[in-house]
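=== Structure Prediction Worksheet ===
Name of assembly: unnamed complex
Input type: mixed (protein and possibly other molecules)
Chain count: two
Listed entries:
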Amino acid sequence: MRREQLKDHFSETRLYTRRAIVSLVFILVLLSLLVTRLVFLQIIDHQHYTTLSNDNRVKLVPVGPTRGLIYDRNGIVLAENLPAYRLEIIPEQVEDMDKLLQQLHDLINIREQDLKQFKKLLKHRHAFDNIPLRFRLNDTEVAKISAIQHRLHGVHIAASLNRHYPLKDTFAHILGYIGRKDVKDLKTLDPTNYISTSHIGKLGIEKQYETELHGNVGYRQVETNAQGRVIRILEETPPESGQDVHLTVDAPLQAIAKNALGKHNGSIVVLDPRNGEILSMVSNPGFDPNLFVNGIAYKDYEALRKNDSQPLYNRSLLGRYPPGSTIKPFIGLAGLKHGITNVHHEMFCPGYYVIPFGENRKFRDWKKTGHGSVDLDEAITQSCDVYFYDLALNLSIDRISPFLESFGFGSKTGIDMPSENSGLLPSRQWKRTKRKQPWFPGETLNTGIGQGFLLATPLQLANATATLANKGKSLTPYLVQKTDTAEPETTIDPLLSTVHKHHWDYIFKSMTHVVHSARGTAHRIVNKKFRTAGKTGTAQVFGIKQEEEYDEEKVAFKLRDHALFIAFAPIKEPRIAVAVIAENGGSGGAVAAPIAAKIINHYMANPL
Amino acid sequence: MKQTERTRLDNPEHRIPLFQQWVQQLHLDFPLLVGLFILSLIGLFILYSAAGEDIGAVQKQATRLAFGFVIMLLLAQLTPQALQRWSPLLFVIGIIMLSLVLLVGVEVKGAQRWLDLYLFRFQPSEVMKLVAPMAIAWYLADAALPPRPLKLIISLVLLAIPVVLIAVEPDLGTALLILSAGIFVLFLAGLRWRLIGSASILLAICAWPIWQYVLRDYQKTRVMTFLNPENDPLGAGYHIIQSKIAIGSGGLFGKGWLNGTQSQLDFLPERHTDFIFAVFSEEFGMMGAVMLLMLYLFLITRGLYIAAQAQDTFSRLLGGSISLTFLVYIFVNIGMVSGLLPVVGVPLPLISYGGTSIVTLLAGFGILMSIHTHRKMLSP
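=== Predicted Assembly ===
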């Protein structure tokens, strides 16, 4: 107390008061600083932070559309979406995970690898996520779990849609299949629309009509918390389902065609010549497209890949075959059009042909004894090679090539499929540029009977047959029904527009004789109810050397002749055009023609 | 004003409300009591929202507050002279405990701050928040002010001991609070402006060596993150970014109680402890936040007024220091949450969830009340 008396109370109080006032100013300055900061954050930049806050909590969850279905022309389902069930577990709802897994294991089959995958996901996903344990539950398994689900906390059965092709291999090459989208697909797809789509069309109609079948993605605006758990749905734009696609193909006819081809490798293409609709298109052997939908097992894929018959190969569009004698009606028509031959011209067939003034090389006829004296009609009916050797030589490749070109040989038909081959139409020009060789007369002879360089796809052959049936009017073949009812667009090649009507009729009549004449190579398939125009073909797979005999039995099966047949019916106002190729089938008349007959007879008896 | 108060005290017959009479008899300060009570209630309400509507947390916090108010009540009964007498002893005990913490303390989250006394754990550094300014006020009070250079140097040494001991625990936030509490005592004691100016310059020069040799890596990271939070949006910067979003998106009027999306959807970390101001501003907006600041301003100015009214130097210095330290809490916490200052672990007084700081803060207000209510008896 004594010390305090030494102090100057008055000046100390003054000093303290001054300092207290400074402190008050200090307090006000600091608090104003905070208020200023709040003004910046909450008023000036409020909009900015509101946006950030919404970005934080509001997420757009894309919802994938349901893929459109594919029907045949009668409304039979060819590609559908079947519900598939999977078993999912939400970890946070489970009390004792090990016990639950044991319980489920006792109930249904859970493989070691399912369990391993599950445990891996369990570590990386949120506790509120659905973690899949088993895929593709069958009905019994679904029933078993559903029955006691109220006791299995955290266990859910989730349904998703799986693409399914009920007719399996019958439509495999037409429909193609869908598969998981891969890195390559990502480059071409619209990333927004496909954000939640796992599968896309990989082949066939599924690929060609991907845009229509896919539909448009929808969105769900959800509020999530910091861990990403969905708290509630704020807004929803439902996805637009894909459109259904209706094919021109007749499923019953397709089944008949597939059966008719039986065990033969090969292809059948059936067209409606009036409009270009494809009524049936078979490539044998087929495969089960369902295998590909959820990723094909390695074993299955290897089996398909290593199969000598190449089941994955779509022969109808990609297979290149020598047309053999089926080319003869076209060559005959060319001869009539260019005046190289006429309906009265006859020649003698001794069973072989030698080029006049050329080297002494014999071109054989398929009939060693020869056909004797034949005119064009007989030459087509009996498929005399010698007549066509002579005709082709006189026409020369320079007239054959453009004429065949006007029937679509050597170019793509423009069918609504992802890929097709353009075959091969040889010409002098082609040989010079591609083979760096001159054209030899012998090669003209081979072209005249549909051998040598000339190659066509079954679709080209059917399409050329339809153009023939339409007397030159050509159509673009198609698989998916047009939504507009406008008349199909036909074009006529200038070369064909100048062909005389009676020349067409003459060829039609000759082709009718192939089936209806007793001497016709396809006489065995005759059906008196209507007139069918056809032409058989037996295409050599390899060339037979001069003077060499060959025995079909001894030649390895793979080197046996391809059996071909083209036909249209009825003669007046044709409604069906068919091309059949049975690989290594042997004789066209004996093998291919009966196959075509089954199709034509069914079609004529059951008009669409 | 003084006149009326005196007459009231002199005439017990004078009609004073019963409640206010109790308050006076209990040595409590009515304005401070009401302010603290309102603040505590606001704190409990916002805690209910910040803790995800967990009533258990609110009850726990209410218990702590009640305990804090009891401590406040007890301290208010002591005379400032008693406090002044015990100051040196308390300070020595405090330093011993701080040393013990470093030797045998319990480590929690990488920092050794707790002393396990078998019955309960406590943080000696919390007690030091009050004891350190008390000791310096005691040391300066018995000589004429402003202090002489030697006194000043000894005061600084006295202050440096606890600050260094706490900083190495490490607990930068508390060290900072104690340092400022001590400096406020010196400032109020009349530290010359010349000295303040040259010390500031010296500090600026020393900043680099401190940065290089004194600060720990995590403390450096905090400062770096504060300077540019967007550099590390998922790591250390996440706290500040999310907290700024919470405050900013609250706008003028806020999103409403329990409706703050940043806080309710877990985007805001530490939202019921150090970052609770972000929850408050998100849900009650700028209006709410300014109102809260006004309440704090009221408590600080009331404290400063009490200190200015005190008649002895010790009470003045201690009371002023307690009030200004309260401001430091608020400024550092809100400054940190709003991205004005680096992240330092300082709670928002009486609102952040957590026990020790609440008790210390209310104990501080208890001392202020003691200063105010024991005043008259000293000066007849």
